Amino acid sequence: MLKRDQSRFQHDSQTRPVLYNHWRERDAGGRSRVSSIFPAVDQQQKSILGSFGAPKEHIFMTKVKMSWHSTYRSSKFRHVYGKAGSREQCYEGIPITHSVHDNHFCAVNPKFLAVVTESAGGGAFLIIPLHKPGRIDPHHPKVCGHQGSVMDIKWSPFMDNIIASSSEDCTVRIWQIPDGGLRRNMTEALMILIGHSRRAGLIEWHPTCSGILFSAGYDCKILIWNLEEGVAVKMIDSHPDVVLCMSFNTDGSLLATSCKDKKLRIIDPRSGKVLQEADCKNTRVNRVVFLGNLKCVLTTGVSRWNTRQIALWDQDDLSAPIMEEEIDGLSGVLFPFYDADTHMVYLAGKGDGNIRYYEVSPEKPFLQLLMEFRSPAPQKGLGLMPKRGIDVGECEIFRFYKLVTLKNLVEPISMIVPRRSESFQEDLFPMTAGTESALSAAEWLSGIDRGPVLISLKEAYKRPNPAGLRASKRDRRTVKGIDLLENISPNTDKELLKMVYRQQDELRKLKDELGEKDERIRQLELELKNLRNT
């Protein structure tokens, strides 16, 4: 005798839930067992169950289809991890400043590391050659020309020996550092820029013009300096309160600012006209950064519930954010860093020991959390190495220099993509901004905009394990310059394996040569484009 059991849900090979009917029958001993399993069918398939002896009063149910969306998102940066430098790679014994100003107090380029330090009788900062880590001499020479505490330092993106500094003495100074570093204290600046009536808190170099520098002071004004003439050419006074952060887009035609009045502004830097303005009534915006060519800006701040949050905005419409996300309930300022080459955003909080990193996309969900680097030591500030100074051979895509005040230590942190290939990774290292200026100060002031002059990082690439290639050459059996493995057929599995490895090496070399030629063609096309722009 057949009895219908209760219906159950099972999944077919297409991962769609299908309703099945289980039929049980009693054997001679009175025990029940499953005799047949019939999927629920429509009216056209009733005859199928009839052939198995199913009762006519069976209730047929239609197949239920449900949509299925995977939460997995493919990304080549999913496995990026942070690697802290060893003790031999750190810089120890640095008297890091105890200033409470929300800034990084650190700047780095491929030649030097600059750190703002504690000093009596004025402000000072150290200049350390990057290739000389270890314990720093307590009497190491300093740049000590300011009469007040140094509030911000920035290396020129075009000249590795030029650094700008702003101070509480209301001045901005330009310094030229010798190639080997300082041998004695430097007190005479290359240029002294006087224009602010109160302390100068922020400085920012123009991204494509080497002769333009922006500075923001506590007098609520932004000054534009023409360094070719040493004068201020424009003053932007559209902020009623102190400017907290400045950020340029890729070609420097737009300037984004955050202000203490809780407003986000997009400004034309030449005219000072406010193009877009967002009144963040329920939040307090602290930091802002342009997201390259995505036509978006990212802000970090504090929500109405006093939690740290990030927000993404359309640069052409600041009426409402595209998305908002709360991070945590800590109180330190959240600093954003954007990598235009990989479209990744790094978030590091002042006083935190962790660094979160996201991948940015022009479509939802816009920001995808990848991973988080954790460290027990809190950070006071972070210096950022330009792309032309990272280790391409180790697949390093980003590098921070972390200030640890408790240990008087500067620790490098590398963000690495784990890959085993020995060739240059073009998808990780596209053409990036170089040291050549795209236009002069006069050209920029006249209204010309140009993107950065791009370079390839392939020239800095070094094959990580050349010993393996030499070993493969020793394994080859030659007689009078003739490769025997090429002229005879393999007799054993070992000889066949050697032949396969040799052919793989030859294919790899050919691919590398083809990639080098493609890169050369790309460089020539880029040079031709730059010549046409000029």
Automatic annotation (TrEMBL):
TM ranges: none
Coiled coil: 500-534
PROSITE patterns referenced in this protein's UniProt entry, alphabetically: WD_REPEATS_2 (PS50082), WD_REPEATS_REGION (PS50294)
Keywords linked to the UniProt accession: Actin-binding, Coiled coil, Repeat, WD repeat
One GO MF term attached to the UniProt entry: actin filament binding
WD repeat placement: 143-185, 193-235, 236-277
Tree of life domain: Eukaryota
Gene3D superfamilies referenced in this protein's UniProt entry, alphabetically: YVTN repeat-like/Quinoprotein amine dehydrogenase
Pfam families reported for this sequence: DUF1899 (PF08953), WD40 (PF00400), WD40_4 (PF16300)
Name this protein carries in UniProt: Coronin
